[in-house]
Design a protein that fits this description.
Blueprint lengths: L2 H13 L35 E17 L6 E3 H6 L4 E2 L19 H4 L1 E2 L3 E18 L4 E18 L16 E5 L13 E9 H5 L11 E3 L5 E3 L2 E2 L15 E5 L15 H4 L4 E3 L14 E3 L4 H10 L7 H11 L2 E5 L5 E2 L2 H17 L3 H7 L7 E6 L2 E12 L2 E11 L23 E13 L2 E20 L13 E21 L2 E15 L3 E4 L3 E3 L5 E4 L5 E4 L2 E3 L2 H5 L4 E13 L4 E14 L1 E14 L1
Parallel strand pairs: 13-14
Antiparallel strand pairs: 1-2, 1-5, 1-31, 3-4, 5-6, 6-17, 6-18, 7-8, 8-15, 8-16, 9-10, 10-11, 12-14, 12-15, 18-19, 19-20, 20-21, 21-22, 22-23, 22-24, 23-29, 25-28, 26-27, 29-30, 30-31
Amino acid sequence: MNKTMKKRIVTAAFLGLVGSSVQAYELRTPWLTERGPLTYIFEDDKDDDYSLNFWHAVHTRIAQKSFKEHGTTKHPLTELMFGKSDFKLSEAMPNSHADMKTEFYRSALRTAKLRPRAQYNERGITVGGRFEYPVYEDKGRIGLRVTIPFRSVEIERTDWTGTPGDAETNRTLVSGFVVKKDDIGNDINDVATLTSFAMRMDAFEATKQTQQGNSMLFVSSAGKVNAGGSVFNDDSNVAFEPGINDLAFVYNKKEGPPSFSPPSAIAAVEGTSKFVRFDPTVSLQDHTEGVYYGFGKDAALIEKYRTFFETGSKTVCQRLQDQALKEHLWIVKVGDGSVVTSNTQLDIARELYSTQNEADHNEYQWLYLNGVEFKSERRTGLGDIDLDFFYEHRFFDELLIEAMIGVKIPVGGSSDSTGNPYGPRLGNGSHPEVKIGAMLAYQPVDWMSMKVDMYYSFAIESVEHRAAAFEDTQIRHLGPKTDAKVDWGYFVGRFDFNFFHPETKSISSMIGYEIYVKQKDHIRFKRSRISSWLGRSLVVNDAGNTVFEENLQKLDNCVAEKNTDAIAHKVRSEASYRVNKYLELFLGGSYTFAGKNVPQEIDAHGGFRVQF
């Protein structure tokens, strides 16, 4: 037995808690009817004979939102799954960087933003039983409790458009192209019109200019910012006056191309107030909408320009900040009106326009080629079986204490969903659980009783198929498949009040509070480095040829464990009607009103209990 396991057993024994089932990497807290009816009724006429009862319940559960930080603020459910609900695939790469100099790089990895949305739906039938036998002069009772769930679990993708492409909702990276054609439909190469041409800066930067992986947007050795065959700079260090074949850019705080008219003439004619030198250290919020910026050839700014564009040596924080700004910067032409009058600018425009074909490469298709498909999925079958051994001791008629030790038998199937982030789980994967705890019930008056029920459980370490978590990735559960050793523990505490009808105990209701606290997953990848989805590195050898080199990236256990700790606060209630001594009917539900890294769940259940 390893030290971690011993430590957890000692902790559990010290706390004196009970255990139940919660899956790591699963989108639900403990299910409401895991131990049968919620209402607890003191049995006045227990004799010295054994007793047997069984119960049957149906339940439903839905979750569309989640809690990220501890509180009541809600986020999309996918924020719980991936760490973010809106993200670029580059954020799932090592160092949150989609390196151009790799085998399977696509510009869409940097420019396309995924906005996955999903909801959780569960329906099920649970069968349970309890057998107990008197001991210790009938003051105590030992027994066995069994719970067997049957579930139908679906994670439904709700952002699906129904089209095969299913591309990003905002993919307008280039706008305003109108090229003249001759009478038979061929392009006229010497004269063309270009109406309000604009291209998002991050799309320009994400486009390869050469096979070796050089960006179309770069700072030359002379200090000029180059965009394909054109430049953003003028040659003056004094006044910023872009030439007729130069480019500028405009800030648009909204998504999509700017609706502002581009400069009608070069700055030398219109005045330098039309253009502002761009300072990349200014925050996104401090930019002015509709103002046209440019990269002035200013010695104090040249080095800032070099670091502003994408490099592998950037810090992750700076990279994400710069990329967020570039989504709102749109490259525009500097010319005479809206007509391209030079072949140079026409060639640049054509080159930029051709990059849209690559930028439109569907990111979901790219994931599919790497073995991952976002799709709704349903699983139906047997869940994990709970088996509890307990001792119940009644000190007097109004006070009862129960101690329990139990196990969870993992018969609910595997937990591998690396091929589909929306793959549901019926159980705990291959993890058995060990659980210990206690319960106290007290009835101070005839019309009301109280029950405190607490438990701690830990899942025994087992090997899972997990999505690789590379150093400094921002997105969880999205990466190449790899094996990891996983274990975790959690605590659940409940405090319930049961109220009875003043004339009869046959009618009762309860209201209670539940808290769920889960420790971080303990994850240890079996391999320290693997290749990312970007594949091998592109390297130019001594002969000037482009060749491939192995490109193994470091896995990070801490990144995989991030945001796997959880807290849930839940209110629950139930109404019960005891038809006779042998039959009880019940109906109830629960609502998660606050939490951290948990779904906002709504549960409902109903069923009956038969006692012999």
